[in-house]
Structures are given as structure tokens and as C-alpha cells.
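Board notes, transcribed. Complex of a protein with zinc ion.
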Amino acid sequence: MKILIDNGHGIFTPGKRSPDGQFREAIYTRQIARRIVSDLQDRGQDAQLLVPEDDDISLKERCARVNRQCLLHGKKNVICISIHVNASENGQNWGKARGWSVYTSKGQTAADVLADCLAEAARKYLSNQAIRADWSDGDIDFEEGFYLLRHTSCPAVLTENMFMDNRQDLQFLESGSGQRAIIDLHVEGVIEFIETV
Ligand SMILES: [Zn+2]
């Protein structure tokens, strides 16, 4: 199974940071994505970064990269996970929303299985945190994410790893144990999926 880990936005993308400006989604997700890839490789899995660059690679280009791998390996032999950090406010204010969630596009059965495996692992590794699994009905704020889910031919999911504009979530995100938990849940969820299908 070819495992493609996407780290979302570019480091020059405006916004996408905590209200105090200290936490930057793109920098954080790049670190997390790299560690997920290397842990999966250590476990003998064929994982790679979808976006090794620091720049914002367009959603269209990211989908083209995924779909090239689908042509090469067969779409049943590729999965894509896009790593994000959520926000509930406009970037200026701290918000109340908290927790972890996973998104799929509608009608992709294998992606739902992958989302379930990740949510199961999240329940284990984020046992003290709020979990919102498979929030696939859609939310206006996540349109950009859905593009990647809609235009890729393999199972693809997007994880929103806690809220960068919630003080408690942010503290968790920045802690060593929080980062470890987020990495581990992705690694274990992916391996569980591969063993299931
Ligand atoms: Zn994002």
C-alpha cells in the first residue's frame, strides 16, 4: 500500500495560525507529517510525503500527484491522509471549540473504513481529549479540504487535529506527549486499515 501523507497548507499561506501568532498550522503539520512518514517507514510501510516542499502547493497539483500514484499502483493500493489543525474563529479571537475529527467525502466506502480506523486509534491515543469522528456531512469551513477528498481516486481522508485557536487544545498540540499521540494515532490507524482491507 502506497501511503501518501499530505501536510495541507504552505508555510507562506496567510492566516492558519493561533490568535497569538505563535503557532503556525503549516509548520506544525509538516513536522507531524514527516514524523508519521518516518514512523510508518520504520514499521515497514511504503509511506511518503505528498508535499515535500514548504510552499503552498495547489489543491489541483496535490490531487494530480495522488492520482499519478493511483495510476501507477492501482487506486486500491494507494491511500491519502491530509493532516490539518482546526480553527473555529477568524484567527483574531480564541475559541471554545475543541477536539479531533476526521472527514471523508461522501460515498467512498474504503475511505470510511480508513476514517473509522483512524477514529478508533484517536479514541485510544486521545483518551482525555474530545473526539468527533467522521464528520462527513460537511461544513462550510472545510470546502478546501473536501476538494482533495473529492478529486482523488483512492481512499482519502482529512484529519483536523484539535483547534489551534483553543488554549487547551493548543497546549496539548505543543506538548511532546500531544505530538506523540497525534503521530501514533495516524500510524496505528493506517496499519489497522491495511490489515483490515
Ligand atoms: Zn488546514
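The chain has a mean pLDDT of 91. The chain has six helices and six strands.
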